[in-house]
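Notebook B, p. 112. Complex prediction, attempt 2.
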Amino acid sequence: MDISEFRRTGHELVDWMADYLRDVERLPVTPDVQPGDIRRSLPAAPPQVAEPASQLMNDFGRLILPGMTHWGHPGFFAYFPSSASPPSMLAEMLTATIGAQCMSWQTSPAATELEQVTMDWLRQMLRLPDDFTGVIQDTSSTATLVALLTARERATGFAASIHGLQDVQGRLVVYTSRERHSSVDKAVRLAGYGIEFLRLVDLDGNFAMRPEALAAAMATDIAAGFVPAAVVATTGTTGTTAIDPLRAIGEISRRHNAWFHIDASYAGTAAILPEKRWILDGVELADSFVFNPHKWMLVNFDCSAYFVKDVDALLRTFSASPEYLRTAHDAEVANFRDWGIQLGRRFRALKLWWVIKSYGVEGIQAIIRQHCDWAQQVAGWIREDERFELMAPVPLALVCFRLRPREGEDLAAINERNKELLTRVNATRQVYLSHTALDGRYTIRMAIGARATELRHVQEAWSLISSSA
Ligand code: PLP
């Protein structure tokens, strides 16, 4: 592709993108395809000769687009949002155009320094403590793995110096709640603790971790010769957006020198609202904290904001400086390759910067506040309709509900009726909702957060649910 063809195709592409954003509402939110359909429609072998850009655009529209789920569709209420935005898309185009590897300060000084500045902006927006330093990771799953690897490194040192233990294999324990995200389990396995050393702490009636149960579990382990290495609390669980009591959990973690990590992947964004900042009460006791601007803060996937207090512990865990990467400035700059797992790094700070500048903090706050208000409206409609019941509190923009059990109906039957309702609603392809299980009870989740969603879409979704019921 020469530059003039790139220019022509690029202009057409931006027109296509603008039309897509304007018209996505008219597309079905989920595709009508069966496993293998898309693959069968594509040639099994690569083309031997170049195809023109017009052919590519044509194939994209004909073969690929019909197989896509539209996460930016205003009827997308499933999982948690991945709320891409036009400013973020533009910045992604620039990132792709420059194609820099941002592994060291020297390999793109502006990328490193913009990352430092934007991460500090985020720290201020969430009113995180001044002693938190931020670095962008790809996802929360990676950030939690980074936290548990650092915790392991630190606990190994403590075990040797405090308990005189030279070999900690099979002794380090990680604590989290029964409603934690599965990425915590994955990180425990990958970081080498062993999944049998992950303790799942009991919940209170709102699906949040019970600090007394955490303290009791730690006491039992310590008495048996184990070493508490880390505690992972969740602010905004995936199932119901339950808020673990951070202060109480943090105090217990500190008492036992356990690394305290907070997973606020989805909910963290809400803390930029003064009226929602309570969700982070006690965050100052944490050793590390992660939230995803790529979920609810209008930044395109991927961009995960990881904050850590003890940067030296992080660097001791991840630094690797082979000769070919050494530069004259290493002593005076941040080389973000040493702040996580990967060497090569995308220029993610650019889209973060672009989004914060394009909307301003107040603009982002207004959008998040609306989503939370609309979720309260949905919760109100559910409370007023005796066929339904709310399954959990609604502190943010996720509403968990189900059809109420009928007199004498057993769990399997009520679960089946709710599953059928969700299947029927999603089969319209006008909306997309997801589900979870709460103590075995099938629960429908409606997460409001796509950028294009307006109140009328929320109202239409509720009418559809109500009439399907
Ligand atoms: N933690 C929580 C609470 C989540 O809800 C999710 C995803 O929804 C994750 C972690 C994983 O996020 P990521 O896809 O960034 O790894």
